[in-house]
From TrEMBL:
Pfam families, A to Z: Amidase_3, LysM
Taxonomic lineage from the root: Bacteria, Pseudomonadati, Pseudomonadota, Gammaproteobacteria, Aeromonadales
Coiled-coil regions, chain positions: 218-245
Cellular component per GO, a single term: outer membrane-bounded periplasmic space
Catalytic activity: Hydrolyzes the link between N-acetylmuramoyl residues and L-amino acid residues in certain cell-wall glycopeptides
Limits of the LysM domain: 536-579
Annotated family: Belongs to the N-acetylmuramoyl-L-alanine amidase 3 family.
Top-level taxon in the UniProt lineage: Bacteria
UniProt protein name: N-acetylmuramoyl-L-alanine amidase
């Protein structure tokens, strides 16, 4: 902050409160003795990239830059001034741009503690400048200048204008001096020095040796100070543009360094999807648990640009929950809503406690080798082998009471009859995986309409978060952070919202297309398992086989196997079979 900015405020405060007079006098003296008091900064990097629409130049600075821009009247030159720089000699140098860019070169010029970057334009429309504040992925401020590529007709017109302007380049320095004087300021002096002179002009030295102002002078001084700053800036900008024009023809010849281009930034911005509007859910909504992968101490995959998977997944999960809650038939619940770590086993337990009908886990993929060629979204479902192992753990540890719906209750009532429990759990698990596959296909179809798919069909995998035998569960890999393009996309808020929106559309399509898989399916499952509990049963004795039992009770081997979920014909002595 420039201390001279405080003068008008301090003057008013001093007039109202005489007790602050001594402090004011001290600060005035400080401003006179040290006119350049302001926060200094460094310029770290000058980088660029181009595509068919524009050339973008980015200047990375340590703190929020005090900058101004000037564009010549013929739009052939643009100057960017950054004030109060510490690393003037180490600040990025100028150079040439690639032939495909609408810029030809940039030259660096220092002026006191200011640095100026003078861009020579070939075929650019009016540039646009904006400032990006530091983010979780970049600690620096970024001054961004977009140079739109002009159309062919505009290029021909600008070429003629540029030719005419080159004839006048020898007079540009005179023009600069005239324009500076026309505003009544001398830009050869620092602004702080001119402000000091103005302060001395409207203040008087008291008996104590300090300068003070009368209320009338203070009002005039404030107005004159405002005019001085405005005129100084205008004169400086015109001078920058004029000097830039004089350097236009020679800047490209004197600089041989090529400005570094960052091709990975050549990713088009994604348009925003419809904004979700929260809706009041029905009495018994379809509950969808949304799990943002990783979190807390577990960052997940980290891209080359520093994008962390845990941040991407949380942003997409929050957006998905918002879209889910915009549908009155649904209710979304987040497994984690902040940057915390939750054990994998607990994630499905949380979904079960919240009586979720679906569990969607959001992730971003990565290739261990660091290859950037792998790309695309995919959807993973639980493999059959993993499902069988998890079912065995549930029976072994007597955790059937934790399951949702009829399966858990009937299994709990079948203590001492492990074969019945196995059959019911297997039925529940098979039905759950079947529902999960149907849902996965609908989500893939929806995602495929927006982004590239790694696989167009669900992928079977052995993953802990998908192990619930009673809740259809999916893991969605939204893209590859190891891919330089997708890393940028996955870090864009609009892209994250689009991914969430298309996942939601897939869920909605599943819900509407397969009514049997809605909430009623749990009630139907409960009824089916209750019926099994009421069937007649037989205990297998030594020497008995499925065919013998089927003949004895007037049924078939296939019907007995189907009812008891048997995969083999082999029986064990003492095994209980339920008969059709």
């Amino acid at each position: 902050m420039n201390w001279t900015v405080l003068l008008p405020v301090l003057i008013k405060v001093m007039i109202v409160n005489a007790r602050l007079k001594k402090l004011f006098q001290f600060l005035c003296l400080l401003c006179i003795l040290i006119p350049g008091l302001a926060c200094s900064q460094d310029v770290y990097k000058l980088r660029s990239y181009h595509n068919s629409q524009k050339t973008r130049v980015v200047l990375d600075t340590e703190t929020k830059p005090d900058y101004s821009t000037a564009l010549s009247k013929d739009k052939s030159v643009m100057a960017v001034r950054i004030r109060n720089i510490d690393n003037l000699s180490k600040a990025p140098q100028g150079g040439k741009f690639k032939a495909q860019s609408c810029l030809s070169s940039v030259a660096k010029k220092t002026d006191g503690k200011d640095v100026r970057y003078i861009f020579s334009l070939k075929s650019c429309d009016t540039p646009k400048t904006f400032l990006l504040a530091p983010s979780k992925d970049s600690k620096n401020y970024r001054l961004v200048i977009d140079f739109p590529h002009a159309s062919e007709s505009a290029v021909k017109s600008s070429a003629g204008t540029a030719a005419a302007s080159s004839v006048k380049s020898s007079e540009s320095k005179k023009t600069a001096a005239v324009s500076a004087k026309s505003y009544g300021v001398d830009t050869s002096k620092p602004l702080a020095a001119l402000e000091r002179d103005l302060f001395i002009q409207y203040s008087t030295v008291g008996k104590d040796g300090f300068r003070t102002m009368t209320p009338a002078n203070a009002g005039t001084y404030n107005q004159k100070l405002k005019e001085l700053r405005e005129n100084y800036k205008k004169a400086q900008l015109e001078q920058d543009a004029a000097v830039a024009s004089s350097r236009n023809s020679s800047a490209g010849k004197k600089t041989s360094t090529t400005i570094k281009e960052e091709v990975e930034e050549e990713v088009a911005d994604t348009s925003a999807p419809p904004v979700p509007v929260n809706a009041t859910p029905v009495a018994r909504p379809f509950i969808i648990a949304v799990d943002a992968g990783h979190g807390g101490k577990d960052p997940g995959a980290i891209g080359k640009r520093g994008v962390r998977e845990k941040n991407v997944t949380l942003a997409i999960a929050k957006a998905l929950a918002s879209y889910i809650n915009s549908n009155k038939s649904f209710r979304g619940t987040l497994i984690r809503s902040s940057d915390i770590f939750i054990d994998l086993d607990r994630r499905s337990e949380i979904a079960r406690k919240r009586k979720a009908d679906l569990l969607i886990s959001i992730h971003a993929d990565s290739v261990a080798s660091g290859s950037s060629t792998a790309r695309g979204a995919s959807v993973l479902v639980l493999s059959e082998n993993r499902a069988e192992r998890e079912n065995g753990k549930i029976l072994k540890n007597h955790k059937q009471t934790q399951l949702i719906g009829g399966a858990g209750e009937v299994m709990d009532q079948s203590v001492g009859n492990p074969y019945l429990a196995t059959a019911i759990l297997d039925m529940s698990s098979t039905n759950t995986r079947s529902e999960g596959n149907l849902l996965a296909k609908e989500i893939l179809r929806s995602l495929g309409s927006f982004t590239h798919l790694r696989k167009s069909q669900p992928i079977s995998a052995s993953l802990a978060v998908l192990k619930s035998p009673d809740i259809p569960s999916l893991l969605i890999e939204t893209g590859y952070l190891s891919n330089r393009y997708e890393e940028i996309q996955l870090n864009q808020p609009n892209y994250q919202k689009q991914i969430a929106y298309h996942i939601y559309l897939g869920i909605k399509s599943y819900y509407e297309k397969y009514p049997a898989q809605k909430i009623k399916s749990r009630q139907e499952s409960y009824a089916r398992t209750k019926q099994i509990g009421g069937k007649r049963s037989v205990t297998v004795k030594r020497g008995e086989s499925l065919s013998i039992i089927a003949n004895r009770y007037g049924t078939t081997v296939s019907e007995i196997k189907k009812l008891n979920s048997l995969k083999k014909d082999t029986l064990s002595v003492g095994q209980v079979l339920y008969l059709p």
